[in-house]
Amino acid sequence: MKQNTLRYRGYTTAIEFSAEDRLLYGKIEDICDLVNFSGENAAEIEQAFHEAVDDYLDFCKEVGKEPEKPYKGSFNVRISPELHRTAVVRARESGLTLNRFVETALREKVERVSPHN
């Protein structure tokens, strides 16, 4: 994890610095809603991030909206019909569902690739 990354209640932010404003700032990452915050030092920015997440969750509850989760564990992937067919066959041959087969392949690739590649 980058040194300027904070996590709280399943949400993440990357802290930036504005030389012009002489402030640290960030936004909740990986959601469509725009939730930003700022602070003058490390303690303030961390507190502001926590408050921003808490405020976002409270607001969603007040208006009856389901809060966005950064990663829900599912996503769509577009591939060729030929690759799709081959993956289904290989999954079946391995005694796996297509989801489990793809998850295993993705996990193997992610664990093999260095973050510096």
Please explain how this structure is put together:
There is one protein chain. The protein has helices at residues 42-63, 81-93, 98-112, and strands spanning 5-8, 11-14, 16-18, 23-27, 36-39. With 117 residues, it is α+β, with helices and mostly antiparallel strands. It has two domains: 5-63, no CATH class; 81-112. It has a three-stranded antiparallel beta sheet with strand order 3-4-5, with helices on one face. α2 (81-93) packs across α3 (98-112). The longest helix has 22 residues, at 42-63. The two termini are 15 Å apart. The model has no long low-confidence stretch (mean pLDDT 92).
Query: What about the largest sheet?
Result: 3 strands, antiparallel
**Element-by-element helix/strand order:** EEEEEHHH
Low-confidence stretches: none
As a percent range, the share of helical residues equals 40-55%
- The SS-based structural class is alpha+beta
Could you report the average pLDDT, rounded to the nearest whole number? 92
Distance between the termini: 15 Å
Strand content: 15-25%
Q: Tell me, briefly, the overall form.
A: elongated
